[in-house]
């Protein structure tokens, strides 16, 4: 809902890094129009708390600890289970494609962790008013990307489970894992951080998978994704 009264905005935080959570708690605690109702290290903790202590805005990291739900699937689950909560994504590494997919999945804004902390406060207020927040420096590039049919098509941002279809049988388990993350909107750098591998290793696995599938880029991966009916 859009805010019209003086009641502080109820905010819940999700980030698996303790230092980040504490920094955000300190930052948001200084704003009289904010009230942080919880700060959580895992999606399970967040969702359990939201059932009894709802929040109007969820400030969530895009890439969480290995084994936790994150990326586009996290956004979709939160949007489905808590439709009254607006989602603002925070990420240390991001690109226009990731942002576009996150917004398609249900996020109301995207903030880079390399932006000034004051930008997060402004982004929260923007989203709380019912608007979408984007880093002004990305707006031109983002608008160009949204003209791409592969990103504009809603089916390019569907949830992805294990990659088990016949077309992917020739891939190694790690190649499948990398492609699944790509389909969930994660960049090579984000995948490397998630699984504790080098960027070079992830890039090599991604391109090896592309060669085996006979595709050349992410757009062709999304098109194959739709054609084989991954879900």
Describe the secondary structure blueprint for this structure.
Blueprint: E1 9-14, H1 18-29, E2 34-40, H2 43-50, E3 57-61, H3 71-81, E4 86-91, H4 96-105, E5 109-112, H5 117-128, H6 139-146, H7 149-152, H8 173-183, H9 188-195, H10 199-213, H11 218-228
Mean pLDDT: 81
**CATH H-level homologous superfamily name of the largest domain:** Response regulator
CATH-assigned fold name of the largest domain: Rossmann fold
State the secondary-structure class: alpha/beta
The coarse overall form would be elongated
Whole-number count of domains: 2
Give Rg in angstroms.
18 Å
CATH class division of the largest domain: Alpha Beta
Output the strand order for the largest sheet: 2-1-3-4-5
Helix content: 40-55%
Strand segment tally? 5
One letter per element, helices H and strands E, the order comes to EHEHEHEHEHHHHHHH
Distance between the termini: 31 Å
Low-confidence stretches: 144-166
CATH architectural category of the largest domain: 3-Layer(aba) Sandwich
Note the total helix count.
Answer: 11
The largest pleated sheet is described as: 5 strands, parallel
- Roughly what fraction of the amino acids lie in strands? 5-15%
Protein name: Response regulator transcription factor
Keywords: DNA-binding, Phosphoprotein
What does this structure look like?
The model is unreliable at 144-166 (pLDDT under 50). The radius of gyration is 18 Å and the shape is elongated. With 231 residues, the chain is of the alpha/beta class. The longest helix has 15 residues, at 199-213. It contains 11 helices and 5 strands. It has a 5-stranded parallel beta sheet, sandwiched between helices. 48% of the residues lie in helices and 12% in strands. It folds into 2 domains: 9-146, Response regulator (Rossmann fold); 160-228, Orthogonal Bundle (Arc Repressor Mutant, subunit A), CATH 1.10.10.
